[in-house]
Amino acid sequence: MSNPDVPNFDEMFEPDGTVRPAYRDYANWLDQQEPAAMRRKNAEAENFFRRSGITFNVYGEGDGEERLIPFDMVPRIVTGSEWRRLSRGIEQRVRALNAFMHDLYHRQEIIRSGRLPQRLFSNNEAWLPEMVGFNPPGGVYTHIVGIDLVRTGPDEFMVLEDNARTPSGVSYMLENRETMIAMFPELFSRIPVQRVSDYPRRLAKSLAACAPSATTDKPVIAVLTPGIYNSAYFEHAFLADQMTAELVEASDLRVIGGRVQMRTTSGYKPIDVLYRRVDDDFLDPLTFNPGSMLGVPGIMDVYRSGGITIANAPGTGVADDKAIYSFMPEIVEFYTGEKPLLPNVPTWRCAEADSLAYVLDNIADLVVKEVHGSGGYGMLIGPTSSKRELADFTKKLQARPENYIAQPTLALSTVPIFTKAGLAPRHVDLRPFVLVSPNGVDITPGGLTRVALKKGSLVVNSSQGGGTKDTWVLDD
Description:
By secondary structure, the chain is an alpha+beta fold. The protein has helices at 24-31, 35-52, 80-104, 109-112, 119-122, 170-183, 185-190, 199-208, 233-243, 299-304, 322-325, 328-336, 353-361, 387-399; strands spanning 55-58, 65-68, 71-78, 144-153, 156-163, 221-224, 246-248, 253-256, 259-264, 267-270, 273-276, 309-311, 348-349, 366-370, 379-381, 404-408, 414-419, 422-431, 433-437, 440-443, 448-451, 467-473. The chain has 2 domains: 21-345 and 410-473, no CATH class; 346-409, Dna Ligase, domain 1, CATH 3.30.1490.270.
């Protein structure tokens, strides 16, 4: 989403070529390295990832082709003071999201106030009537949140998307760091980088704090995966292993005696907290999609009776809707009484006649997205599209305007990647990972930096040819 007429903010280099403060220690180290040695290290990184099994599946290509997640070994570096400012904005937003979820499934005060239109929910498949009037254990709806951020200047961060349903990518954040430590241990003795390796421990602690109130012993936590053919299966298995939690599929679970229980070698054992990586529609065939083989028949009855915690709560997908996203400044102010510390990207709601007219007149300059889209699919990047693509998308907009939002093209920041010819700038975004429990909000210092590896590319998603970087938050 970059505007070629506006200069990009280079996070490592000033316009005159001098190195910015965050990167000075790294640049000094890099200047001392032999180019040939760095090229060997770059090849080692790919082999490390291949041995670790860090892959994802691409549906629709070769029956789910497995691909290596591309990794770039030049870290993205953020100063401690920058991170503290970001963290305050992230925490404010996540608290507002959780309060918003509670309100949507109770009195809907924000709709009564006129701040949000009723149509956003009456036509929204992610809003679940089964959650109306129900209070999840600990009052937490959004246990794990990924807030996608873009940077356009020295102190200019904006929220691009909210991921409150089942945010993915944290395993790549952890493996990126492990790879960097394995390849460049001397860097971490020279530069004070805040650690991310304790995320699984923090995740397990946060989930345990959300266990049902009737839980008396140490809560039993399990990760529910759709199975080995899911695109994020590596992450499901990785997190279960790192948390010392159980990795389960639907066939391992059944409702017995009013509890969700998992099959073990010594019989069935109750689960207290289920970190599910299965979408709402497939979670309970008795409540949602009757043809689902990925969920647990009756789990919603157990949930509503207080017998299990489901993370994230069913129905939180409403917050991922890009039409809802466009109202986040109003949502933050309504529930916190404060102005948002992190702004949204300006957004036109095509469901509104004036906005639609503007978007149709300026489609060649805008980014247009489906309100329920994800992964870089179903979107149009106007400045890089052909006349045929613009015409086709115009027809889609005119046919279903409520299905789209539009945003301006931005001068997204760049971070260098390592190429055979040396360092070269590429566009990036950032997904910090946030844990929410009755004990508070816990933000891991860093997150997943996704990078568009192709020159001039604006799409960072791995399914669209993007890669990842290690993200360093300095301990200053």
